User: Fold these one by one.
Assistant:
Number 1:
Amino acid sequence: MFKKILVANRGEIALRILRSAQELGIRVVTIYEETDREALHTMHADEAVCIGPGPRKDYLNIDKIIRVALNSGCEAIHPGYGFLAENPAFPEECTKAGLAFIGPPPEVIKNLGSKVIARKIMTDAGIPVIPGTSILSEGTEGEKEALKFAAEYGFPIMIKAVAGGGGRGIRMVEDEKSLLEGLKRSRSEAKMAFGNDQIYLEKTLANPRHVEVQVLADQFGNVVHMGTRNCSIQRRHQKLIEIAPANLPQRMKKKICDTAITAAIASKYESAGTVEFLIDEDDNFYFLEVNTRIQVEHTVTEMITGIDLIREQFKIASHQPLSIRQDDIVERGTAIELRINAEDPKNNFLASPGKIQVYISPGGHGIRLDGAVYQGYEIPRYYDSMLVKLTVYGFNWLEAVDRLRRALNNFVILGVNTTIPYFQQIVNDPDFINQRFDTSYIDTHPHLLDYVEEERDMDKIAKLIAEINAYKENPYIY
Amino acid sequence: MSKTNLITPKMSSEDILGILRETPGYFLTNNERDVSQSDFKNRILPQTTLKVAPYRDETGYFAFEISGGASIHVDILKKQIDPFEKLRLVRRAMPNTLLQTVCRGANLFGYRHYPKNVIRFTVRQFTKYIDVWRVYDFLNHVPNMIPVFEEVKKAKKILMPCICFSTGPEHTDEFYVKKVGEILDVTGKDIILGIKNHSGLGSPKRIGQLVHSIVKAYPDLIIQYHGHNTDGNDLGRMCEAVMAGAKICEVSDHGFGGVYSQAPALTLIQVLNDYGYKAPGIKIQPLLDCSDILRRERRYYEQFESPFKGFDPTVRRHKMTGGAAGSSFEQAEKIGLLDRFHEIFDEIAKVLKELGNFWATTPGSQILWTTAVSNVLHGRYERPSDDLKNLILGRYGPFPFYDPQEWICQKVLEYQRTDRKKWHDIIATEGGLRTPKDVDIEAKRSQFEKELGEVVDDEKLCLYLQYPYDTLSYFRFTKEYGKTWLLPPDVWFRKGGFKEGECISFQDYEGKTHKIEFISTRREGNKVLTSLLVDHNFQTFTTELRDNLVSR
């Protein structure tokens, strides 16, 4: 096992990785940009190294990060999610520098990062994929290919960036005109976001469910799955709430999990990964993509299986065979995870940076918090707006919903707008409580935004006390 | 707390009246509303009321007056509590005691006649909480009270119509017995008749005679006596009233009762006990406990007590109501007339006589006061107020005994008239009781909702119909500052700010404890930055000082 590693990330995932490492006795070096100097991950690591002025660019600087890892005597690097996690150049450079990369090999990232290559791998392995094109040619030729596909499969159609991910580079079009306009826009957006303007088309499924399977694969050909997750509740293709298990019929669950293992084997996968599927209204499932990283929502799987995925990643990266067999993995209960962000849901979920004046978190049985903030922390405007990831566990679905509601109600975060009131609306929504949701849920429930955010009574009263103090008498009574 | 009170809010009004008729002895009503109004400028805070509520509930009072008069307006104006919320709180804290209000008939809880639909709407809102309705008209004009009577009866609550009492050659037993008859003609016999001796006038003998005359004329009538201790003789009058047949007396707590409100319950109980009159169901220990607490609370309200300590036997002459007498010293001081105070009180006595020797209670007491002050400052009736004009025009009702002399009518009614109309023409064409036209209540609701920016329920609307501007300000205040009535009096009335390290602790509506600790105070120009630990959470509040908010 490694003795010292570097975490090439920030925020809650840096802390998450750090915790598992500390449990294994591994020393951890974290990195930070100047603009992120007061972040929590810099305070909890064994060592913290500033890698540049930032913002954002230094966390993406492979050379600098590898240099820090080498200088501080690290043996491996964990990329977390985002930043360099799915950049195949990063594991390549790590390998060159003699560092282990705690994640899949670069060629796996490369292949699965290309949506088109990934679809081919899966098709060759007999896995159903959503009808789609290969990479579209440039210019009018590409337009012709797109129109031909539209004529064959009909609208709506998804335009997707080959290098896309995390909901970026995706556009749905309803007619020929928007298809042709969308091709240009998507190319330009893909170029901006991923440095690669290749795009392709996929038929759009009507209100599908998004289900994914967590897999673990070692370097010795052992692959296990850790059950399903339902990530259908999304806003603009960004997951908002994730649930484990996905509550599928037993036979279907087995089929989809077996398919995920087939996908992992076909792609020569190593480490922890997620095979994503869409399920249509007739319960047909289609391969969507493989996420070659630890995902935000991995906590729900950990809650229902009891297995520490990061710990397993460490073992795999240090050439150990999987310590668990498929039969060892038992799912129990339901877990729900959501991301509490500093955003104003009523203002199009606009980021709400600022100072956290009050931070009180819930606790008790079945509640897990993966946080990145503290009271008095000034949220920098340069990074993502996640404050804390809340994961709850319940013996069954309804118990988990009750616990989630209680946990949300017990949160007190003042100073910035948060997504808490929006989630409070969701946990009280009958459709959510009765598990009636698919990927159209957010769009079809606009009333969830109809809430009034009340200032806490005690804070209002404290305001008057401050005025009595300032005026040296109560200005409202004489 | 005990549930053995003889009378509880769960009983029907018929049953309660039955118990009053059949139970030997006398009952007591604790009138904190009047104690607060007469001795502490209406400032007793809900936190004090709630602190002693369990003891008062256990004492076994017939009723507890906590609403009505000026208190409703002052609740929203100076105490920042919704009068309905106050009633809900008191009801919860005193589940075994009837709650009582005092209502000024057509003037409701204000100072002018309201449209009938507003009166009925308001009474309907308050009957949800108020069990006993003490209703009066300052001219003893019974028709002014009829809409309130009807709504109280409709709600099956206890109606207590009052005769206002005063002294003078016209104020005979015959007059008052006739007035009681007028009331009974309207209400029927299932009422409690209130004697409202708002100024604490007459000797004990005089009150005894009055009660005796009423009992003689209406032997089954339940009589309640409400007096004031302005001249120090409330106790004697109450004793005589009880011995002559009054069934209920209004009292204060000895820890609180002062000069201008009622005499203490315990003193009355002790005296009447010697005369062989018992107060059934009254428990002494909670009465003592209550006053022990109030004695400690009283220091917070000291600033609101009249600067003139001691009794005022001259009330027999100026006849000002308990509440007005207590606050008149302060009002005189405010306008720089403290040294001419006796002149004003002489003038009040003179004006009262000239205007028909009516009853110097709200709104008549305010008219008397402003007229007397104006007469002293500007010459007699040289600058009459609109309210005085309305009084002389008979807009509040007819003068009960005699009309003002012609020269007064001329001076008042012809003042600032540009049409050269003579006073007798003015009375002929513009005089007489005029009930304001009904208002479009729903239109008012829409207007208020627009101004406040939120949905307005009937209770809020009811307050808005009576005091539009102040109600709007109050609800805007609560939006900003929340339930500030939770604050204890030592915080609410604090002068000089708070020390670093000082800790405030209080309970919220659910009884949960909250703590606010002072960390630091920093001044930057006209801004004050106050850092607090609010329930252990650090917060800094910035107050931008505004000159117009507080005068210093």
Note: Residues 496-544 of chain B form one domain.
Number 2:
Amino acid sequence: MAEESKESRSQARLAAAAERKALAEAAAKKARKSRVLVSLAVISPILLVVIVGVSISLVKSKVDSTVAAPSVASKVDGYGLVFNDTAKPQIDVWEDFQCPACKTFEDANGAQVRELAQNGKARVVYHALSFLGAESVILANASACSADEGKFLDFHDYLFKNQKPENSGYWGLSRLTAAGVAVGLNQSTFEACVKSGKYAKWVENIAADGAKSNVNQTPTVLINGKEIDRNAGAYIDTALFKKALADAGVK
Amino acid sequence: MSVGVNFHARHHLGVNLLALLARAILGGALLVAGALKAFHPYQAAAAVRAYELLPVSVANPVGYALPWIEIGVGLILILGLYIRLGALLGAGMMLIFIIGVGSAWARGLSIDCGCFGGGGAVDPSKTAYASEIARDVLFFACGAFLLWRPGTRWSLDSLGSGRITLDLYEEESETDEKER
């Protein structure tokens, strides 16, 4: 009797233990399931954001040859605006209309570059970069609009002479239109072009080409594909820049 | 490593607080850094090119993708789901950044690290390599701490079983229970 009850008690204990174990396992399984659901619910949107973001950036960085571009823009020059297609040497000017260092370059050497462009003494290619934000895109687009009427150089100089703090909101439609009128652009045509962002995609193309061409900063100025000597101060020293031009055969 | 078993437990409030702080610092930094750059892809790419460590054709996609990856890892850490995975990725990225900035410094380049937007060449007097590296070391330390002791309080990792799961600790903790 005593033996039997001992045996049945130990059996009951075992059964209870097995039941507890089964319950615990079921609970753990349920918990795991809910965790998987939570994980999926949280991780999927995060992954989605990352994948969509990366994809958009990668797609945007492709140069799109179908976009509207001003007539003097040259595909082989990364959509830069070309002056004197057959002249030599070639001078590439990469600038952002909002960048203060570009204004410094323009103040020191802009007139020299302009003279070459105007008088056919070099093949000058202007690339309007737009690193500095939305207002850079607006201004680059407007510069393309001015090129439509053959006033790019005037408008370009006007924007640098009247440069404002970055993304200050100064260059609204009315001020930009007034700037265009000031350099002799047709008010309604120019205003419409600025307002619609007619060449905004072209601005993207230039940015994408700048990335491919390893242009890491503004201003970047190349003479025959070689950057002028930044460390020596060629960007800010008028005489040094003149010498660099002369060395490249500019008369 | 049986120390890991009870990390979610109430006894370790201090560790859990430190882990939360580490997640906030590393995750927050990654999220902010990514968000500041994500919508300026061309600048981000230029910042990567400026290190002159990768060929242009590689540096550009890295520049376009990196901000979004930073956002993803930042979110993982802040929400606290797969903390150790996030910590591993975050610490790994910081290690790469430290090496990148250090190598730019050693090669005498004059660039901004481009960590929180910006980037590219700067005037030699405006480089800040030491403080950039110090900052990244702090972030790396947060990641390393989380790898060691992820904590799980105030995190999505504490949901479900209430125990750290889907990482190395789970199996160990079960073994420990059997041993007991």
Note: Chain A has two domains: 1-60, 73-247.
